[in-house]
Specification:
It comes from Oldenlandia corymbosa var. corymbosa. The chain has five helices and six strands, in the order E-E-H-E-E-E-E-H-H-H-H. The chain is α+β, with helices and mostly antiparallel strands. The protein has a single domain (about 5-15, about 35-160), classed as Alpha-Beta Complex (endopeptidase fold (from Nostoc punctiforme)). The longest helix is centred in the last third of the chain and has 15 residues, at about 170-185.
C-alpha cells in the first residue's frame, strides 16, 4: 500500500481542492468502480482491537474498539489530531495502521455510487474535525454510527461503543473511563 502521508492514512480533501495547495492533506486515490447494481453496494463496519485486553472481555460484550466504514473498496474512519481540520481519513479496508483487525460486519446497502459516496464523505468530514475528537462523546465509533445510519438506515452494533456509552452515564464515570482508556491505549 503506497500512501502519501505518515502512518498509512490519508485525510479527506474535497474534490474541489485537487491541484491546489493543501497543507497537512493528502488527496484520495482514484475511486474504484462499483461492481454492484444500484442500491446493492454493501456497507461494512470494520472493527479493530485497541488493546490485547479485548481478547479477555469481548465475550462479555466489552472492549475498547476502533472502527471504520467500508464502502466501494475504501474504508473511512475518524481520528484525533491537534488541528481544526477534518479528522476523517481513508485507509485500505481492514488494514488501519496501529490497530489489530477483529471483524467485518455487514451493516446494509447503499444506493450511492462511488463518486456520490466520496462527495457524501467530504460533506460529513466537515463535522468531524480532529481537534473535536473525544473518547467518550465523539469518537470513531460515533462517526461510524452516524455514517452507517445515513448510508443504510442502520446503526452499528451497540457492543462496539459500549464502553464509551457506559462512560457517558455520569460525569464521574467519564473521568474514570477516560483515564482507563488513556492507560489502555498508551
Amino acid at each position: 500500500m503506497t500512501l502519501g502521508s505518515k502512518k498509512g492514512w490519508k485525510s479527506i480533501v474535497p474534490l474541489r481542492l485537487k491541484g491546489k495547495s493543501t497543507p497537512r492533506f493528502c488527496l484520495f486515490s482514484k475511486v474504484k468502480p462499483a461492481s454492484y447494481g444500484p442500491g446493492k453496494t454493501p456497507v461494512y463496519l470494520n472493527v479493530y482491537d485497541l488493546t490485547p485486553m479485548n481478547g479477555y472481555v469481548y465475550w462479555a460484550g466489552l472492549g475498547v474498539f476502533h472502527s471504520g466504514v467500508e464502502v466501494h473498496g475504501v474504508e473511512y474512519a475518524f481520528g484525533a489530531h491537534d488541528y481544526p481540520t477534518s479528522g476523517v481519513f481513508e485507509v485500505e479496508p481492514r488494514q488501519c495502521p496501529g490497530f489489530k483487525f477483529r471483524k467485518s460486519i455487514f451493516i446494509g446497502t447503499t444506493s450511492l455510487d462511488a463518486t456520490q459516496v466520496r462527495e457524501f464523505m467530504e460533506r460529513q468530514a466537515a463535522s468531524y474535525n480532529g481537534d473535536t475528537y473525544h473518547l467518550i462523546v465523539k469518537n470513531c465509533n460515533h462517526f461510524c454510527t452516524d455514517i452507517c445510519y445515513k448510508l443504510t438506515g442502520r446503526k452499528i452494533p451497540k457492543w462496539v461503543n459500549r464502553l464509551a456509552k457506559l462512560g457517558s452515564l455520569s460525569g464521574t464515570n467519564i473521568i474514570l473511563l477516560e483515564d482507563l482508556l488513556v492507560l489502555i491505549c498508551s
